Amino acid sequence: MTMVIRLAAASAAVLVLALAGCEKGTPEGSGPVVVAGPPATQFNWKMVTTWPPNFPIFQTGVDRFADDVRVMSGGELDIKVFAGNELVPPLQTFDAVSQGTVEMGHGAAYYWAGKVPAAQFMSAVPFGMTAKGMHSWFYSGGGVELWRELYEPFNLVPFPMGNSGVQMGGWFNKRIDSLADLKGLKMRIPGLGGRVLDKAGGTPVLMAGGEIYTALERGTLDATEWVGPYHDQRLGLDRAADYYYYPGWHEPGTALELIVNKGAWDSLPERLQRIVRVAAMATNLWAYSQFETLNLKALRELRQEGRVNILPFPDEVLVELRRLTREALEEEAAGDADFRRVYEAYKAFRADNDAWNEISDDAYHRARGLEGVGG
Ligand code: CA
């Protein structure tokens, strides 16, 4: 109680001094200076993304993040979000933030594989870690530190911000019974997954989300991957192909990224930096939980409708794809020192993560499965 009164008295005294100063018209820089705290600087930032406007979770998560930051900072850090093409084309997000045209961006690190091949480990590599492993590696296993080193030359500070969970293997217009069924297959599948398909005799095609449905429906494509049951159903892919394969061996837990221009980041007081860091972490968890929840609802609907055959890839196909993935990763590492360095760190963490999962998650799921699913 005493403390409160003393503080109130002190505040009143300060107020009197300040008013006295005003009355006397004390010029700036002379007389007693009363400072209640550091002056609040208003930061009005722009943020661009690689996603279409209102794209569920991907873009809506970014809108939510900006709102969190604005409210938590009492309006001091106001981030105006622009979806892909609203300010810059989606795939110029990296450059726009790197050059300081805008302060922030959101996308997925494997989009920048042409500039930073090793960045692919910060989003998804075939037969890599799932969300659980990625989160552990990023936050507690040195992943984010490696990521910062990779982006440093580009004037960027990266943060994990979203994870799709295990994606689906994709939509096919025929059954896949052996590796031979992938030969000659024209499939929309980006990144290293596409490289692996190419090694398996297929033809990877790069195509934006908006064109996939028509291409698959008209037979321009034989197959496509997209995200998971929720986003795939939303795109109408369940009406364009009969076979829906799992798992998404090529994208086992795709991480999304927040990138901040280094100069802009350094200009923020520590308090606002912490708000951004914590809001990104919260968005990471929010997005992952949204993917998981909306996917399981969409899967239930697809099963209830019963029109689509939902099938696992045969073991023989997965074993071959994994072998080809190792080849592709080794080839990439042979030509890029950063890729090699990050690959080795990633592999070491994944090996430990696998060993632990074997007697934790995997063993637990087996235990639950002994009497069948449920209960
Ligand atoms: Ca995908």
What is the helical fraction, as a range of percent? 40-55%
State mean pLDDT (0 to 100 scale): 91
Order of helix and strand elements from N to C terminus: HEHEHEHHEEEHEHEHEEHHEHHH
Low-pLDDT runs: 1-29
Bound molecules: calcium ion
Q: What strand line-up does the widest sheet have?
A: 7-6-8-5-9-11
- Helical/strand content category: alpha/beta
Q: What is the β-strand count?
A: 11
Beta-strand residue percentage: 5-15%
Biggest sheet features: 6 strands, mixed
The global form is globular
From the N-terminal CA to the C-terminal CA, the straight-line distance is 56 Å
User: From the alpha-carbon coordinates, what is the Rg to the nearest angstrom?
Assistant: 25 Å
**With helices defined by DSSP (H or I, 4 residues minimum), what is the helix count?**
13
Structure commentary:
With 375 residues, this protein is an alpha/beta fold. It is 49% helix and 14% strand. It has 13 helices and 11 strands. Helix 2 (58-72) runs antiparallel to helix 10 (270-305) and helix 12 (337-359) packs across helix 13. The longest helix has 36 residues, at 270-305. The protein starts with a helix and ends in a 6-residue tail after the last helix.
